[in-house]
């Protein structure tokens, strides 16, 4: 306030400038907002503790129960295998879409278009009914004679169908995520690599991909969390992942809310673990960008 | 020896190089001058086949760059063979183009071949040569522009090229950092490195160049020693350009 009533800064004598103190601006509304937020949080916590409907004893009884643990394992398997196969597909589809060859481009484009269009649940039901379309599958010359024959039903279990569906679905999204990473890298980087005579594959692996990872990781982690939750959709194939399993239990006991909470809390915990993992992986690929 | 013969290059309808002939002796320094858009950079990029020519050819020590001659036809080489040829031709970019996720040392070793130990030693020696051995573990972001460009020069030298091409190596630098890069280039020239340099540093050209060529609208219109081209240019265009640069 002294500053406002003082003459312009330029007119201040040097010794006078030394005596002036800086007072930070006050934010009264910030305090009001903080109080409101705290009241709301307290109310929510109070409800969670006192409302008997949450039935925390049942929740605790089933949280580490054996069938739930096994189901959790299936959820994890589906998530990680789905993500692995999906991103493997994405690593093939993305360069195809960026290729100069029109055929490769259109195949990749069409794949991404189709698999992003079909709802996951519809696709899963298709794969589960593959045996209805093709009773046997065979390996051999395309359009020619086959050497090995398989019964479709014996080859594609319902777990296999679920994994196939998740991976194919995921590959379409992964392809776009990888592509966005690749195009985010300065083209001059590849030019420098080409000028140094670095072979094509090594350019991709050593120069392009590590830099693309910076753009890929946040969205890929997002997609992984999405996939974790999407695994709940495979309950339609009667696969014992966690969402299916809690339904089985509450179908028997009628305790719907606490069992939904069991699944919910596990999803939240797994997402938290993934977020921590994401933090460290991102830090690794950010080396060279920090000062 | 580098021979550029009858090189034409168009981007769409725009003809950037309209028949360039240029001979560069081994161990000599050639500076290419010319107004912007005259085709200097394109000419440089044609020499290591970063750009394909439409007509004409480039030879380095007798070896055709980017093509294989069969009768009267030139067949473009496979990418692998072109990459192999480029290892003999260093290229220094205006914007350095260091790999940001690798340290200075890793930038230098990235394209090198051979036993780990030897590669490491040689890379350090190259960094030493540009005065940056103490920055081996630094990432490009941690270096000044001048230091980054010197690492880029060390990276090009690490492959023992027969020839080093410099594409406006000091144009992206703050004025006070230009000197350190030119000093390194001066040392290279003194050591007998064959160099072709596109630059606007007339002082450097006068002092270091054996030959100065002047490019205008895709044609090489004047060529000679620094004294000939800079002090008594024959062509009006050269005179006009120099009067603007040598304020």
Describe, in short, the structure shown.
Chain A is mainly α and 291 residues long.
**CATH homology superfamily name of chain A:** MetI-like
Total E-strand runs of chain A: 2
Percent in helix of chain A: over 70%
The termini of chain B sit apart by 35 Å
* Rg measurement of chain B, Å: 18 Å
Give the domain tally of chain A: 1
Give the strand line-up of the largest sheet of chain B. Answer: 8-9-10-3-11-12
Span between termini of chain A: 39 Å
Measured by residues with Cβ under 8 Å of the partner chain's Cβ, the largest interface is: A-B, 23 and 30 residues
Molecular shape of chain A: flat
- Percentage beta strand of chain B: 25-35%
Number of helices of chain B: 9
CATH topology of chain A: MetI-like fold
What does this structure look like?
The complex is a heterodimer of chains A (about 290) and B (about 250). Chain A is mostly helical and about 290 residues long. Chain A is built from 14 helices and two strands; from the N terminus they run ααααααααββαααααα. Chain A has one domain (about 65-285): MetI-like (MetI-like fold, Orthogonal Bundle), CATH 1.10.3720.10. Chain A has a two-stranded antiparallel ribbon with strand order 1-2. In chain A, helix 6 (about 100-115) crosses helix 10 (about 160-185) and helix 7 packs across helix 10 (about 160-185). Chain A is flat and about 95 Å long. In chain A, about 25% of the residues are buried. The model of chain A has no long low-confidence stretch (mean pLDDT about 90). Chain B has a domain at about 90-160. Chain B has a six-stranded mixed beta sheet, with helices on both faces. The longest helix of chain B is centred in the C-terminal third of the chain and has 16 residues, at about 175-190. Chain B is globular and about 50 Å long. The two termini of chain B are about 35 Å apart. Chain A: GO terms for molecular function: transmembrane transporter activity. Chain A: It is found in: Cell membrane. Chain A: It is a multi-pass membrane protein.
């Amino acid at each position: 306030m002294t500053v406002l009533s003082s003459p312009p800064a330029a007119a201040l004598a040097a010794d006078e400038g030394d005596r002036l103190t800086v007072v930070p601006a006050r934010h009264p509304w910030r305090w009001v907002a903080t109080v409101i937020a705290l009241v709301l949080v307290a109310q929510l916590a109070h409800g969670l503790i006192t409302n008997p409907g949450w039935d925390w004893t049942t929740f605790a009884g089933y949280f580490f129960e054996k069938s739930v643990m096994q189901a959790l394992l299936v959820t994890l398997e589906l998530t990680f295998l789905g993500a692995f196969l999906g991103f493997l597909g994405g690593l093939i589809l993305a360069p195809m879409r960026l290729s100069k060859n029109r055929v490769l481009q259109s195949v990749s484009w069409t794949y991404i278009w189709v698999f992003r269009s079909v709802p996951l649940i519809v696709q899963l039901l298709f794969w589960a009914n593959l045996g209805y379309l093709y009773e046997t599958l065979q390996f051999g010359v395309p359009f020619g004679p086959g050497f090995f024959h398989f019964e479709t039903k014996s080859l594609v279990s319902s777990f296999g169908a679920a994994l196939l569906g998740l991976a194919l679905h995921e590959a379409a999204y992964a392809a776009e995520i990888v592509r966005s990473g690749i195009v985010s890298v300065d083209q001059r980087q590849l030019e420098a690599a080409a000028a140094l005579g670095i072979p094509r594959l090594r350019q991709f692996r050593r120069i392009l991909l590590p830099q693309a990872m910076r753009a890929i990781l946040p969205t890929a982690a997002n997609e992984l969390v999405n996939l974790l939750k999407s695994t709940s959709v495979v309950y339609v194939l009667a696969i014992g992942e966690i969402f299916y399993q809690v339904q089985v239990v509450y179908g028997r006991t009628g305790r719907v809310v606490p069992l939904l909470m069991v699944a919910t809390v596990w999803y939240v915990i797994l997402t938290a673990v993934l977020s921590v993992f994401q933090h460290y992986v991102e830090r690794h690929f950010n080396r060279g960008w920090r000062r | 020896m580098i021979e550029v013969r009858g090189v034409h290059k168009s981007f769409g309808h725009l003809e950037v190089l309209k028949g360039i002939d240029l001979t560069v002796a081994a161990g000599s320094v050639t500076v290419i001058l010319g107004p912007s858009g005259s085709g200097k950079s394109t000419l440089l990029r044609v020499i290591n086949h970063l750009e394909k020519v439409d007509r004409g050819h480039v030879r380095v020590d007798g070896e055709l760059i980017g093509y294989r001659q069969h009768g009267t036809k030139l067949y473009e080489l496979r990418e692998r063979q072109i990459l192999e040829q480029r290892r003999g031709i260093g290229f220094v970019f205006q914007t350095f183009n260091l790999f940001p996720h690798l340290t200075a040392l890793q930038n230098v070793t990235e394209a090198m071949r051979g036993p780990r130990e030897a590669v490491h030693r040689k890379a350090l020696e190259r960094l030493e040569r540009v005065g940056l051995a103490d920055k081996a573990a630094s990432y490009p972001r941690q270096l000044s522009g001048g230091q980054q460009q010197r690492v880029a020069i060390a990276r090009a030298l690490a492959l023992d090229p027969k020839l080093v091409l410099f594409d406006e190596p000091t144009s992206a630098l703050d004025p006070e950092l230009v000197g350190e890069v030119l000093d390194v280039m001066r040392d290279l020239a003194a050591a007998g490195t064959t160099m072709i340099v596109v630059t606007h540093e007339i002082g450097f050209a006068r002092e270091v160049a054996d030959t100065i060529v002047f490019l205008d609208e895709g044609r090489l219109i004047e060529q000679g020693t620094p004294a000939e081209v800079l002090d008594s240019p024959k062509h009006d265009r050269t005179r006009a350009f120099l009067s603007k640069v040598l304020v």
